[in-house]
Amino acid sequence: MNTNPRRIISLSFLMVATLMASAVTPKKKNTSAQKNDSITSENVIYQWEAKGNPIVTHKYTCDPAALVYNDTLFIFTGEDAKGGQKWYNIEKWCCFATTDMKHFWEYKMPLRATDFAWGETNAAWASQVIERNGKFYWYNSSQTTGIGVAVADRPEGPYKDALGHALVKNEDSFGKKHSWRTIDPTVFIDDNDQAWLLWGNGACWYVKLNEDMVSYDEDYGVKEIKINGEMEFPFTEAPWLHEKDGRYYLSFAVGFPERIAYAVSDKVEGPYEYKGVINEIAGNSNTNHQSIIEYKGNWYFIYHNGGIQTDGGSFSRSLCIDKLEFDKKGNYKPIQMTTKSVDPIK
């Protein structure tokens, strides 16, 4: 999420999840036979063909988090309530999917802020879903009440609050005083099958999750990520962690308006070496929130901007996707935000 909160989304549409010869303007879901079993008449509410960035244009979306499962790329976002908003109003989350980066579909709403009794009605802030042991765990943040977790049997849900209370709260985010510091969770499972939860605004904290994924190792406790090196802008929020070739890449938003920067380490716990800004201020949005993921041999930078031409902005944001590349030393190349987006894949 962001120094207070979140983002936007929209595009135009067609059809869907297989290779079809003709395009149909999508007003409603297509109920014809599909090759992808995930696309069924009962759980898919919208299908379209992306025409560039923003990827989603039928609604406003923010804070994307990606998951690859069963050869499908799922993207979970918050939904900014409407265009032209003057503040963050995010009542629910969305689940989108694709198998070719061209044809997308949207599932029924999987979760709303009020599904957490301890949450806040208009604060469905940044989140991330991960699979473990056949279950899907969705770590969500709310404005001032902390980070919770919901669980489901399928990536698209439906999800239910696993605990009835927040997993981590403001008192766990030590060293800072502002009320929105316990937000923006990212979750990662390392090669030793250890799950980690990171989060934070103003600093980045982390815990070791237990095998059940809904509690953490209290003996290990809550610790703060250390980032060494001179940073052009202070750490703001939006941590995202992934691994490549034995190195851990921690990306995050810096400054405000937000840019995306990153740091690397040979251990999840760090310390991390700061590498610099890789993505400048997203068009027409004070915030940004990234998801970095490999899918079918390609790396993608998934983010939001305020680019929908009808009432898009800092509080009415839009999902975008651009390619991510590495140099010979394994560092990120600067990311070029485009209107074209990425090429279709098979």
UniProtKB/TrEMBL annotation:
GO MF annotations, alphabetized: hydrolase activity, hydrolyzing O-glycosyl compounds
Gene3D superfamilies: Glycosyl hydrolase domain, family 43
Site (Important for catalytic activity, responsible for pKa modulation of the active site Glu and correct orientation of both the proton donor and substrate) residue list: D184
First and last residue of the signal peptide: 1-23
Name listed for the protein in its UniProt record: Glycoside hydrolase family 43 protein
GO biological process, one term: xylan catabolic process
Keyword terms, alphabetized: Carbohydrate metabolism, Glycosidase, Hydrolase, Polysaccharide degradation, Signal, Xylan degradation
Stored PANTHER family: ENDO-1,4-BETA-XYLANASE, PUTATIVE (AFU_ORTHOLOGUE AFUA_2G04480)-RELATED
